[in-house]
Design a protein that fits this description.
With 272 residues, the protein is of the alpha/beta class. The protein is built from nine helices and 13 strands. The strands form two sheets. It has a nine-stranded mixed beta sheet with strand order 1-13-12-11-2-3-4-5-6, sandwiched between helices. The chain has a four-stranded antiparallel beta sheet with strand order 7-8-10-9, covered by helices on one side. The protein starts with a strand and ends in a 7-residue tail after the last helix.
Length: 272
C-alpha cells in the first residue's frame, strides 16, 4: 500500500487512458469524518457539488457504498443520478435499478426482535445504543467509556448467540460499532462485482473501477477489484488490501477534484 500522491503520475496515466469510469465511495470516514452520532456526519456542499459533476460527466458513474440504511444515505446526499448502496450492499437504488437482497428481507422480523432484546440490557450503559437499519443492526459504542466496552460486547454476544448457532445472523466489527448482519453471502465486494458485470454486459467496455473506503467492510470490495482498477483506503494505519492510501476525507475531496479535472480534459471528453 503506497501513499496515493507519490504515485500520482502513473495513476493519472491510468485514468486518462480509459473511456469509462465507475467510482465507488464509502460515506462515513471517506466523504465525511466519523462523527459522534451518524446524524451529525453532514456532507460538505463542495463535496456534494463534486459528486454531482462527476456523475454528470459522459462515461462516468458514481456509486455510494455504505453501511447506512439506503433511505438514510439518500437523505444525507440528496443527489439524482447516483447509485445508492446501503446496508453493506444488501440494498441498492440507482438509475433504472432497484434491489434488495431477498435473503436479507426474510430476516427483517428476526433483526427487529434482536434489536428489541438488545435495548433493555444496553440501556444502563451510557452512550450505547442500537440502530435498527431494517436489513442490519448497529450497536454503537463510540462515546461509551472504554471500561464499559467489554460489557457492550458481552451483552451483544449473549443476546445474539442463539441466532449465531442457527446460522441466521453473523457479527461484524466496524469503527467503534458492532454490526449484526443476516447470514447471507453478500458483501460490499459482491455488489460491486454485480454492478460492474451489469455494465460490462451492456457493452460498456474498458471500465476503470475506483473504490475508496476506510472500514473493514470495504476490504471485500478492494479484493474484488484487485489490480483491475484503483483501490484506495482512507486514514487507516493497519495493513489493507488497497493499493493506495489517503489520510483523510479532505484528501479524498482533493482527489475527486483532480479526477474531475482530468476527466474533463480527455480527448474524447464530450463524446457520449
Amino acid at each position: 500500500m503506497k501513499p496515493l500522491w507519490s504515485s500520482w503520475p502513473s495513476i493519472r496515466r491510468q485514468i486518462v487512458s480509459v473511456e469509462r469510469l465507475f467510482l465507488f465511495l464509502d460515506y462515513d470516514g471517506t466523504l465525511v469524518p466519523i462523527a459522534d452520532h451518524p446524524s451529525k456526519a453532514r456532507l460538505p456542499a463542495r463535496t456534494r457539488r463534486l459528486l454531482q459533476q462527476l456523475a454528470c460527466q459522459p462515461g462516468s458513474c458514481v456509486a455510494l457504498v455504505s453501511g447506512r440504511r439506503l433511505s438514510d444515505l439518500r437523505a444525507m446526499v440528496r443527489l439524482p443520478g447516483l447509485f445508492y448502496i446501503g446496508n453493506h450492499g444488501l440494498e441498492l437504488q440507482g438509475p433504472k435499478l432497484r434491489y434488495a437482497h431477498p435473503g436479507a428481507q426474510v430476516r427483517r422480523p428476526l433483526l427487529k426482535r434482536i434489536a428489541r432484546l438488545l435495548k433493555k440490557p444496553l440501556q444502563p450503559i451510557p452512550k450505547a445504543w442500537v440502530e435498527d437499519k431494517g436489513l442490519t443492526l448497529s450497536v454503537h459504542y463510540r462515546s461509551v467509556p472504554p471500561s464499559r466496552v467489554p460489557l457492550v460486547r458481552n451483552i451483544l454476544h449473549e443476546v445474539v448467540e442463539p441466532y449465531l448457532k442457527k446460522s441466521q445472523v453473523r457479527i461484524a466489527a466496524g469503527k467503534r460499532v458492532f454490526e449484526v448482519h443476516p447470514a447471507v453471502r453478500w458483501t460490499k465486494g459482491t455488489v460491486v462485482h454485480w454492478l460492474l458485470a451489469r455494465h460490462l454486459a451492456a457493452g460498456k467496455k474498458r471500465i476503470l473501477p475506483i473504490y475508496i473506503g476506510d472500514d473493514q467492510t470495504d476490504e471485500d470490495a478492494f479484493q474484488v477489484i484487485g489490480t483491475s482498477g484503483l483501490t484506495i483506503t482512507v486514514g487507516r494505519s493497519k495493513l489493507s488490501q488497497a493499493q493506495y492510501c489517503l489520510h483523510s476525507p479532505g484528501e479524498v475531496e482533493k482527489f475527486l477534484r483532480r479526477l474531475l479535472e482530468m476527466w474533463k480534459q480527455r480527448p474524447w471528453a464530450n463524446e457520449r
